[in-house]
Design brief:
Helix content is about 0%, strand content about 50%. The chain is built from three helices and 112 strands. The strands form 25 sheets. Strands 28, 30, 33, 34, 35, 36, 38, 39 and 40 form a nine-stranded mixed sheet that branches. Strands 98, 100, 102, 104, 105, 107, 108 and 109 form an eight-stranded mixed sheet that branches. Strand 75 and strand 76 form a beta hairpin. The longest helix is centred in the middle third of the chain and has 5 residues. It is flat, with a radius of gyration of 73 Å.
């Protein structure tokens, strides 16, 4: 009974074996073939379905329908281990699994694994043995193990039934004709045993669009009741029933009407005030339900709703009520699960409501009709007739529209009224009469009146009666353009009235428009003066633009000035009218009717103080108004005529320009004086703005000042008011400075000298002038020293006299002349080098330029030498054209000539003498120049000419002469050679000139190639004792040891001295400088290097510094070559073995000096690797044995040689195998006194040959008795022995490496055992255990760190060694025939690199057992069941590739 349904019984055998009997063996296996025995029958399954009756037939379901499924499984005689029944739906979004209801066994013979246990479990949903996916697409029923316990024949089958429930969901994919299926399957141990499934199709109802009547109604008013009918009809494609039909309408919720008597198919429908009794989620809609019919609509059937619509009193005027009708119906009677459907009417009733009607009136307040003028007022009234309804957000507006331009004043008498008390507004919060309308609701902006009426209500319900709301207002006309028109518009808007308008007839604005004719004059003569009468004649008339009478006309003279004339009389149409004498408003006239003309004559008298040359221009205008009674509010106009033009008399002007006596006719020069004169004949009137203007052709070349100018202003005739009376009390030049001379440089300068002058003579000008009245003007100027006043230039000047707009101009042009001198200077004997007391001579030649433009005399001619002021030389004598001159008392002047005419010339010669303050090393360069003027006065132009001839006489310079002295035998002697370290003396003698040497210093030194080292007190300086101390100052010179620029020595630059040699005759003067020191020992100072001794004299002067140099050569010994003989070079050595070196040393061909105090040494001695035992065959004393330095010879003469034998041996501290070169160094000195140069030379080197290190590797006992073979997991013991020469092995280690043919690491875990041994003279000590092996790398390398290994033995016949041993095993994963190569190497560290011994290798081969698959046989081929016995046989053997025994065989049946 343990078998499972459909199970196939099989048997599989396998054999395992070990590669080694030990713990590290590898397990191997061999698998046999499978054997089949028998198979058990399968499980069967069927399914049935039951719905809730909402579908018209089976195999179909409606949305929201409930269905029960029963699955029945048939079970054979077998055991089903922990069976699981899986339920699934193909569309879990449409029909998810609701619950697993029951699981019932068919009989007790189908029991659990434990006898007596029941299988029935009901209900199952929510129990621990039932689970479902979150999306309800699958559910799982898990049962205990089922066992068929029946004892009947094998064909007996027991059953297990399971119930499942589901509902069809209202989702988007659940549509008519959509298919889905359910399946149940039984599973055990991951295998499906049986399954059954069932399919369903979805059905749905469908309605045609609703049919609604009537479709349109007009003239509907408050409380009308309109019958409405709605028809519902199922479509032909509907395959499902329609439940709970419900009618909805949009306008019920708005309160526009109240539904009455709602019926469904002739019966009273269920009408609800709310949807609380229904599923709001299913019925969510913005529409309000009217009624519900509960009987389902059968396939092919229909129904209808009827009701009455009674409209409310709150309907908005001009509103449109449109019914939006729809019906809902459902797929299932359970509305919670059912799908809701909606049918909408294609069109519904439309109800239209009344619209308001507007009215307007518009007129003027004075003349009536359609004409208005400025000053009138207009009256406007607008009204709106309202229907019996609400007008929400109502606004009544009155506004003007102007064509052209009209200006209105603020509105007056604005009122808002209603025609009946039934018209009310809710602006105050409740409906009230319009008389209570808040004041802020009426807004006036210019000619616009806006009344916010809020919600208007006309509660008058009488048919055909409309009530009105009215606005009235008055606006004054304040101005505009005649001919412009205006209309009034009334506008009404409310919530549903977008804006309706009505416009009045137009009103037109009129105005007068006058014009003046051309003006004519009548005068006694062409030009007038004071007292003359002038008649001005013109006409006034209406022009073509005039449209009304002109009121209050007034005559005005716009140019009237009492100082020029007065109004004598005014006549209009020949009748004298009221006039205002001496007033701009000449007369006031009567009204001028439209189309009338007036003729006007105005007589004026000229005033006595009219300015001469002025023009009389009276200009008349007329001012008038448009309004007869209120000109202030009417339009006021002004019309201007053309001005009359009458001239007055002009003055007579006369001017001249005269040059002074210093210049010929037609020429000027810098400093010349020009005089300007003018005379003015005045008419017998007032002459205004009397001015004199001076203008030059170029700016700035004339100058006027009180010191130069003579200004006279005088008048003649008793009728002239003089300048003193008009402009100033005293017309002297000082009082005119601000008015005229304030700008001294004259160019276009206008000088106002007088202002206004009046002539009161009463003589009649018509008969000709009588006594002349004349005004005189005079001004002097000087020609300036400016660039434009140049020889040959043409310069012009103008004098303009201006009075009463008249002017007179006089001009003059002058040619500029100038003097021009040239001169040449010659210097004699300029190649001479001068000292104090010596002289040098110069000569200058002067001449005029040959040009007409330069024809002037030269004045105050002076010859100058600017260098005389330096004090280095003085003037000794001078002459002009051979005539001696008295010497000038003050430099830089050499000679002066008072006047030099144009055709004359001059020659000047003079001599200078050098004085002791003159500086040494400079050039005496006279700076000669010529100075003269163009005019004898101080205002003439000054000219300067400089000599271009090269002039210069050099002064003597100080020069030092250097020399070298060396110390030999206690004496200082001149020499041309010196050795490194030798003491030397530098000598410099400086010649001191008979002058002043400024800031003098002396530098004495050798070139940097010899690296001079100063002694404690190396320098001194002194003048020659033979020279008197007074001849040179200072007598002493300060010295320092070292100058900043090595290796030069001398005076410190910051403490330089000034030498003044006052001698002019007698012996020469010298300064001696001495510097002592040693030649340097640095590497640049070598044999044959050239050196020099230099002297540099620095001073302040153009030729500084001066220098001289003398040369010498460096000498020193050069030793070699060293020759070495090494008889031991052919045999290997180790520590303690002696060897002999033969040293030979001599002078080379380039040696230039003897060598002193020779010694030899070796770096191996200082490093402790080498010991010296004998020198020249003599054993060293113990105290000196092994020292680092030994005597070679006290002196080696130039061209001689010497030989020394040295016996040495290596110490045990020498690293075995390292690179050791044996060589010696010799130290020699260039002189017998210190300090001196050391000379190093090295022997020819020889490398030591070391004794070799030998190595051997061996293996311990093996399992198979074959040292070269090992099975996986076998123990492997390895040992390496190293023979060591005498010496050191720093940082020594034994390196074990392995390499297999597969590349894998095969020798495992060397820490299992290890040890180290050595002979007694080898350290470190013996080691055993894991501590000996200090590092194992990932690639199987093992390192035995020995540390500082030293073989300190001295017996060359004894072999010293060190031994390293490791213990491991062959890897269990080693492959058959795989070879492993093991290597051992001794490695240690030298100063140059790592050193290693020879490497010894040992090869191991892995051997592995291999078995063939077992041969399997079964004693029967029939089917079997529980209790039958089956015998299985297996045979196993080695394969031909097996090369090792097999251990620990085991047989298994899978």
């Amino acid at each position: 009974e343990r078998v499972r349904p459909g199970m196939v019984l099989q048997s599989t055998l396998s054999i395992t074996l070990q590669s080694h009997p030990g713990p590290h063996s590898r397990e191997l296996s061999v698998v046999a073939s499978q054997v089949s025995l028998a198979q058990v029958p399968q499980v069967g399954a069927v399914v049935s379905a039951v719905g809730d009756g909402s579908s018209p037939s089976s195999g179909i379901v409606a949305i929201g329908e409930y269905v029960l499924l029963t699955f029945v499984f048939s079970i054979p005689q077998s055991t089903i281990v922990t069976p699981e029944i899986r339920f699934g739906t193909s569309q879990n979004s449409i029909a998810p699994i609701h619950s697993v209801a029951n699981a019932i066994a068919g009989s007790p013979s189908l029991g659990l694994a434990v006898p007596g246990s029941a299988v029935t479990v009901s209900p199952l949903e929510g129990q621990s043995n039932v689970t479902s996916h979150a999306d309800r697409s699958e559910s799982f029923l898990r049962l205990p193990t089922l066992t068929h316990l029946a004892t009947s024949p094998t064909s007996q089958v027991e059953t297990l039934s399971v119930d499942l429930e589901f509902f069809v969901k209202d989702v988007a994919s659940a549509n008519r004709g959509a298919m889905f299926a359910f399946q149940a399957s039984m599973h055990s141990l991951g295998e499906q045993l049986a399954s059954a499934d069932v399919s369903f199709a979805i059905v749905e109802p469908a309605l045609l669009p609703l049919s609604v009547a009537p479709l349109a109604v007009t003239g509907v008013d408050a409380m009308d009741s309109i019958p409405v009918s709605v028809q519902l009809t199922l479509q032909a494609l509907a395959d499902g029933l329609a439940f709970n039909s419900t009618l909805f309408e949009s306008e019920v919720i708005s309160g526009r009407y109240v539904p009455e008597d709602v019926q469904f198919s002739g019966a009273q429908a269920v009408q609800l005030a709310s949807l609380s009794s229904l599923d709001r989620a299913a019925l969510s809609t913005p529409l309000l339900m009217l009624g519900m019919g509960q009987s389902p609509l059968q396939l092919g059937g229909g129904a209808n709703f009827t009701f009455g619509a009674n409209f409310s009193l709150d309907i908005e005027s001009n509103d449109v009520t449109t019914m939006l009708t729809s019906a809902n119906f459902f797929s299932h009677f359970n509305l919670t699960r059912a799908r809701r459907y909606t049918a909408v009417a294609a069109a519904g009733p439309v109800f239209a409501h009344a619209i308001p009607v507007l009215g307007v009136s518009f007129s003027g307040d004075r003349a009536g009709g359609s004409d208005i003028v400025q000053g009138d007022s207009v009256v406007v009234a607008g009204e709106v007739a309202l229907p019996n309804a609400l007008s929400s957000a109502s606004t009544l507006t009155v506004f003007f529209t102007v064509s052209g331009h009209i200006t209105f004043g603020d509105a007056a008498a604005v009122s808002v009224t209603a025609s009946d008390q039934h018209v009310q507004s809710n602006c105050s919060g409740v409906f009230a009469p319009l008389s209570l309308l808040p004041p802020g609701n009426t807004y006036v902006d210019g000619t616009t009146i806006v009344v916010a009426l809020c919600t208007l209500q006309n509660s008058q319900n009488s048919l055909g009666v409309s009530e009105a709301t009215r606005i009235e207002a008055r606006f004054p006309v304040q101005g505009g353009v005649a001919g412009s028109s205006v209309v009034a518009t009334v506008n009404f808007t409310s919530l549903l009235v977008p804006g309706i308008n009505i416009t009045s007839d137009a009103l037109t604005l009129t105005a007068p428009s006058l014009a003046l004719s051309n003006t004519t004059v009548e005068v006694p003569r062409l030009a007038v003066d004071g007292g003359d009468l002038i008649d001005v004649i013109f006409s006034i008339f209406h022009d073509a633009n005039s449209s009304s009478d002109a009121f209050s006309p007034t005559l005005v003279d716009l140019n009237f000035a009492a100082s020029q004339y007065a109004v004598d009389s005014v006549e209009v149409d020949g009748v004298r009218v009221e006039s205002v004498n001496n007033s701009a408003a000449a007369a006031r006239l009567n009204v001028i009717p439209l189309g009338a003309t007036r003729s006007v004559r105005v007589r004026i008298r000229v005033a006595s103080r009219v300015e001469s040359g002025h023009r009389i221009r009276p200009l008349f205008s007329v001012e008038y108004s448009s309004h007869p009674t209120n000109p202030a509010q009417g339009a006021n106009f002004t019309v201007v005529g053309k001005a009359a033009d009458v001239p007055t008399l002009q003055p007579q002007l006369n001017s001249t320009i005269v040059a002074d006596q210093w210049t010929p006719n037609g020429t000027i020069t810098v400093g010349s004086v020009l005089t300007f004169k003018s005379a003015i004949v005045l008419p017998e009137l007032r002459t205004g703005a009397l001015k004199f203007s001076l203008q030059a052709s170029q700016a700035g070349w004339l100058f006027a000042s009180p010191e130069l100018s003579v200004l006279s202003t005088r008048g003649s005739g008793s009728s002239v008011e003089t300048i003193e009376a008009i402009c100033c009390a005293d017309c002297s030049m000082g009082n005119l400075t601000e008015a005229f001379v304030v700008s001294a440089q004259l160019s276009g300068l206008v000088a106002t000298a007088c202002g206004d002058v009046a002539n009161h003579d009463s003589e009649d000008f018509a008969a000709g002038p009588g006594t002349s009245e004349v005004l005189h003007f005079e001004l002097k100027t000087r020609v300036q020293n400016v660039a434009q006043v140049a020889a040959g230039q043409q310069l012009s000047v103008n004098l303009t006299a201006t009075a009463a707009n008249s002017s007179a101009l006089v001009s003059a042009t002058f040619t500029v002349v100038e003097p021009s001198l040239s001169f040449n200077v010659t210097g004699f004997n300029q190649s001479n080098v001068l000292e104090a007391g010596q002289t040098f001579a110069l000569e200058a030649s002067l001449a005029h330029a040959q040009s007409a433009s330069f024809g002037g005399d030269a004045y105050e001619v002076a010859l100058l030498d600017a260098a005389l002021s330096n004090g280095m030389y003085a003037q000794a004598e001078a002459s002009v054209n051979g005539v001696a001159l008295a010497l000038q008392p003050q430099p830089p002047q050499v000679a002066r000539i008072q006047q030099l005419p144009p055709l004359d010339s001059a020659s000047v010669r003079w001599t200078n003498i050098v004085v002791p303050p003159a500086h040494a090393g400079v050039t005496l360069s006279p700076a000669v120049s010529l100075l003269y003027r163009s005019h004898p006065s101080e205002f003439g132009r000054t000219y300067v000419a400089n000599s271009s001839a090269p002039l210069g006489w050099d002064t003597l310079v100080p020069v030092g002469t250097p020399s070298l002295l060396v110390l030999e035998g206690g004496q200082w002697n001149p020499s041309q050679v010196a050795w490194p370290g030798q003491r030397i003396q530098l000598l410099c003698s400086v010649r001191v000139p008979r002058l002043t040497t400024l800031n003098a210093s002396v530098q004495v030194g050798v070139s940097s190639s010899v690296d001079l080292v100063a002694m404690a007190a190396p320098a001194s300086a002194a003048f020659r004792p033979s020279i008197a101390a007074a001849s040179v100052s200072p007598a002493a010179v300060d010295m320092v040891d070292v100058n900043d620029i090595l290796p030069a020595y001398g005076l410190q630059p910051g403490r330089r001295s000034t030498w003044t040699n006052n001698r002019t005759t007698g012996p020469l003067e010298y300064l001696d400088i001495v510097v002592r020191g040693n030649i340097g020992l640095g590497l640049p100072v070598q044999n044959g290097v050239a050196g020099n001794v230099s002297s540099v004299v620095n001073f302040t002067g153009a030729q500084s510094p001066t220098s001289k140099t003398t040369s010498f050569t460096v000498v020193e010994p050069a030793l070699g070559p060293l020759v070495g003989s090494f008889p031991w070079a052919a045999q290997p050595l180790d520590a303690g073995d002696p060897f002999v070196s033969f040293l030979e040393l001599g002078h080379l061909s380039n040696s230039t000096a003897s060598a002193w105090n020779l010694t030899f040494s070796s770096d191996l001695l200082s490093r402790g690797l080498l010991a010296v035992t004998q020198v020249d065959g003599a054993s060293l004393l113990p105290a000196s044995h092994g020292t680092a330095e030994f005597a070679f010879a006290p002196k080696l003469e130039l061209a001689s040689a010497s030989t020394t034998n040295v016996t040495t041996s290596l110490l045990s501290s020498a690293v075995v195998g390292s690179e050791i070169w044996v060589h010696f160094e010799v130290v020699a000195f260039a002189g017998d006194l210190l300090p001196t140069r050391e000379s190093y030379r090295t022997t020819a080197m020889q490398r030591l040959a070391w004794k070799e290190t030998n190595v051997s590797v061996a293996r311990g006992a093996s399992l198979l008795g074959a040292p070269a073979s090992a099975v996986p997991g076998e123990r492997v013991e390895l040992e390496a022995t190293f023979e060591l020469p005498q010496g050191s092995f720093p940082n020594a280690s034994v390196v074990w490496t392995q390499q297999s043919t597969s590349g894998a690491v095969r020798l495992m875990d060397p820490h299992a055992g290890g040890s180290r041994q050595s002979t007694s003279s080898v350290s470190p000590t013996i080691c055993s255990g894991n501590g000996c092996l200090t590092m194992i790398t990932a690639n199987g390398t093992v390192i035995d760190n020995l540390g500082q290994l030293v073989n300190s033995g001295t017996n060359n016949s004894k072999v010293d060694w060190v031994r390293s041993r490791i213990v491991s095993w062959m890897s269990p994963t080693a492959l058959r025939h795989e070879e492993v190569t093991v290597s051992a190497t001794l490695v240690w560290q030298s100063s140059q690199s790592r050193i290693q011994s020879d490497t010894e290798e040992l090869r191991l081969s892995a051997v592995v057992a291999a078995l063939s698959p077992p041969e399997v046989s079964v004693n029967t081929s029939q089917s079997v069941d529980g209790g039958d016995v089956v015998t299985i046989s297996a045979t196993v053997a080695h394969t031909v590739n097996s090369n090792a025994p097999a251990f620990g065989l085991t047989v298994r049946d899978a």
